[in-house]
Amino acid sequence: DPDFSQQWHLKNTGQTGGATGADVKATFAWDRTTGSSAIKIAILDTGVSKTHADLVANRIAGYDYIDNDGDPDDTEGHGTHVAGIIAAEGNNGASTTGLMWRAAVMPVRVCGGSGCPDSAIASGLQYAADNGAKVINMSLGGTTDDPAVKAAVVSSGA
To answer: Which residues pair with 135 in a beta bridge?
Structure first.
């Protein structure tokens, strides 16, 4: 993949001035496995692009809690970026490589241009758990302790 040499977090050769070997040792792990579509990873974020070359093979059905429909296509780009770090298909000649090339990416759009409503996050957590997500990624933050989000975390087992 043409941009792999820039992904120092997967294999750091000092290519960006960093310390050689300061990475997650992904290439060693890939000798054993590149993941499995049986592992569903929910990305609670701005959605995931349905046309991104590195993600289209791994993207499964999800939900959009901002527009309340079954089309969680990314509107801001952040969710696609996060999904790519996790599960961009490797060795396909496209741009980058994810840590788990074969994981199933479940896009759950809980953030939009005006933020990430707690109600959307709570619903997204429950959706992910109810639909078999084994891992839930939320690259978002806030300062409130919303009871609905807390209850969703507890009931989903996240």
So the answer is: 41
The amino acid that residue 76 corresponds to is: E
End-to-end CA distance of the chain: 33
- Is the pTM of the predicted complex or chain greater than 0.85? yes
Say whether 127 sits in a helix, a strand or coil: helix
pLDDT of residue 147: 86
pLDDT tens-digit series, residues 66-94: 999 999 999 999 999 999 999 999 989 88
Q: For tokens 């992910």, what's the residue?
A: 128
Alpha helix positions (H), 22-75: 26-30
Contact 66, 112 (CB under 8 A): yes
Which residue spans within the chain are E strands per DSSP?
40-45, 63-64, 104-109, 135-137
Number of H helices, E strands in the chain: 4, 4
Helix or strand or coil: residue 141? Answer: coil
- Kindly calculate the radius of gyration of the chain based on its CA atoms and give it in whole angstroms: 16
Helix (H/G/I), strand (E/B), else coil: 158: coil
Please tell me the distance from the alpha carbon of residue 158 to that of residue 133, in angstroms, as a whole number: 10
